[in-house]
Amino acid sequence: MKLRLALPALASAASPADASVQAATVLSHSGQFEASAEERKLLCLLSDGRLLVAVGQDMNVHVLSYQARLQRMQKPFRVEHAKIDELRQLYASGGALAERRQEHSMMQVTAKDLLSRACAARASDIHIRVRQRATEILFRVRGDLTPVGGQTREYGERLLATLYGAMASVSDSSYKPTERQDASIADRDKLPPELHGVRIATVPTSEGTLMVLRLLYVEAGDSELCPLGFSEAQAEMLQQLKEQPIGMNIIGGPTGSGKSTTLQRVLSGQIAEAEGRRHVLTIEDPVEYPIDGAVQTAVTNAGSEDERSRMFAAAIANAMRLDPDTIMVGEVRDRASAQNAVRAAMTGHQVWTTVHANSALAIADRLLDLGLSPGQVTDHTVVTGLISQRLVKALCPHCKVPLAEAGASLPPAVMGRLRDVVADLRRVFVTGPGCEHCGGHGTIGRTVVAEVIRPDEQFFNYIRRGEKSAAQSYWLRDLGGRTMLEHAIEKVSTGLVDPRMAEQVLGHLNAGAALARRRLHVVEEGCDAR
């Protein structure tokens, strides 16, 4: 029985090697219209609707079977004839190209699905580790790395190439697995709705490649600092720094300690309070979070670290000519950017920036290490605020367990340190079994533990003379200071944080001379992260 074709009639033999055929995509190589190996020897389905059939093979059982399948799938086609060699050439060229295009497109869908899964878990980072024989994928959720799946090495290599080469909007010209590279995904069409952007960093390893994706979530533009975990006293000090027209305020902490989120809230609050009368200009690498009312600029596409440093320093210098009231520098990472940031503060601008430092007191050491002069670093009219912070997991209020009921689960050493620093153990809680409110984790997000120094001349006199212990004692005694460790202990003593989780981030709770002479009796409440 002769098959009725979906589109008329058999054309006379025609060569597929014309321009229109070359522009078409081969559909029968893979996908829903994939032909078997025997069928591909005799036919080729093109994206423009033509079914090329080898001359003299119209009634071949493989050809008839494939045509019947297309009809069942209601796929329109029209038959044209071609030489067997021409069919082979089409599969060798167009087929391979179509396969690559389809695979690339499918990997983009896979990559976006991976980002969506990470958002659902509220992950801060995705780690993709391409090893010698396999690929591992991990999410960082509430500060911990959690494996979420594995794949073949080949799969991981294609995923990395897709994320970097097809989805990144700020990157080098091409993905190079054997080099360190940075990029970002900023096209919202390529991202789940929960994300504003994704920062990408890659590095070659002894076995393959590591790619880390930092997820930048869309925030509601909140300008309040207390919900992040800052105490009322700390929020008040930051408010005073915001209201000061000049000076450089520096937030220190390791990667992932929430510095960028704090900066966003500080600047959002400043813009809202000024009701649009303040020109806030940011210099970032790349832009991380949108700040309504700010002019945000990116330093991107540098070919090397030296070039990036030069461009960053030039951007800060240029910013001073753009009539800003406040300049936010995403990160001070080298001497040039540090000098330009200080120069901006010395010439009548308010400057906010971040740096990698272990404590508020250590920020001054970090600036000296970057090459600034002691005179610049220790001038209290130039450096007006030193802030340091960490993030600690916050206990779920619905399933947390009183220490009295779970004390046996804590090692004796931890219990001993806890007794040294907390007066009333009845208010201490530890992680519970998990519930529907926290997704079975026992924790709900993370809360800030911080220290804020508003240095004066005497404080910097101690720093200038290298008397760091005296500077810290003066800060604690005369400036009303409180260390991050003390802030964490307050949260432990009010049942907000598990003591073990606090020690994972900050070390032993009874460390430090200041804590040895202080026991906490009065506790600030009502201003911590929920």
From TrEMBL:
Entry coiled-coil feature ranges: none
Statement: the UniProt record of this protein carries the keyword RNA-binding: no
Keywords per UniProt: ATP-binding, Nucleotide-binding, Signal
Signal peptide coordinates: 1-19
GO molecular-function terms, A-Z: ATP binding; ATP hydrolysis activity
Domain spans labelled Bacterial type II secretion system protein E: 320-334
InterPro entries: P-loop_NTPase, T2SS/T4SS_dom
Listed Pfam families: T2SSE
Protein name: Type II secretory ATPase GspE/PulE/Tfp pilus assembly ATPase PilB-like protein
Organism from which the protein derives: Pseudoduganella violacea
Lineage: Bacteria, Pseudomonadati, Pseudomonadota, Betaproteobacteria, Burkholderiales
